[in-house]
Amino acid sequence: MLRRSLLAAPALVLAAPVRAQGWPARPITAVVTYPPGGVTDTTARAICEGLARELGQPVVIENRPGAGTSIGSTHVARATPDGYTILFGATSLAINPTLQPQLTPKDPMTELRPIGMAMRSPFVLHVHPDVPAKTVAELIAYAKANPGKLSGGSSGNGAVNHLALELLKARAGIDILHVPYRGGAQMVLDLVAGRVQLAFQAALEAIPVMREGRTRGIAISSAERFAATPELPPVAATLSGFDAVFWQGVFVPAGTPDAVASRLEAALMKVTGDRALQERFAALGAVAASGDAAALRRLLAEETERWGTLIRSANITV
Description:
This protein is of the alpha/beta class. It has helices at 2-21, 39-55, 70-77, 92-99, 108-111, 136-145, 160-172, 184-193, 203-211, 258-272, 275-282, 293-313, and strands spanning 28-32, 59-63, 85-90, 112-127, 151-154, 177-180, 198-202, 216-220, 245-253, 287-288. The chain has two domains: 26-121 and 245-313, Bordetella uptake gene, domain 1 (D-Maltodextrin-Binding Protein, domain 2, 3-Layer(aba) Sandwich); 122-237, 3-Layer(aba) Sandwich (D-Maltodextrin-Binding Protein, domain 2). It contains twelve helices and ten strands. Strands 1, 2, 3, 4, 5, 6, 7, 8, 9 and 10 form a ten-stranded mixed β-sheet that branches. Strand 1, helix 2 and strand 2 form a beta-alpha-beta unit. The radius of gyration is 22 Å and the shape is globular. It starts with a helix and ends in a 5-residue tail after the last helix.
């Protein structure tokens, strides 16, 4: 019995690497934490098409929205760590631990394994034409000269564009009333009507009304200029270090074998580095973000700290 056990031990040690080398042997499920049809879903589908070509197996999207994206994220965190269930995790992974600590995964840094970046989507800071400011500096000066007069819309309490507004207020030392909406569609209608005076809004929603002259674009929320709005400078040109974007990255459950994670990372980097995909994303108001696992891990850690500090200091609640 002892001899049989000792002979079996090497086989157990070798089993995991052998399985990893054969991955993937069947279709992969990619969980998206938002409903079908939006930019997050559309860009994820485009990436999954590329992953399927690189990996030689279908990569099937499964939309699991709800509960601040925690339904989908928790499903993947609790899945078998074999590489057959992946997550398109978003900025909410960095926000929820402070904003909604009752949600799971409670610690994405340990419950999920980063694979690499997928996309970044900046916000356009635009104002109603009655606001005289044409630059961020002028907007700050106007807000200081007219305390309490400006109101800014967002897609909801704790949404990334709400946090961008709070970051602007904190960095510039200005008073702007936050008005939360259930998504961007109603918000842009109220901005055009002058019921709110400004908003950080997804480029795909903001650009059409800007082009029609119904709002005025002032800046872009990313640290760098955005190809779809090259005329708009970053807020960071006035407030150094300002960077507030929606992002998605690919994660797998913690415990996924290194060989599987490495192959998936290499495939993702090749897909997001493709020029045709980058042009496709630009038309959707997004940027294909080609960052490796280490870059995604750093981003998650930095944003968890940054947004957590802001949420606590501004006393933001859902």
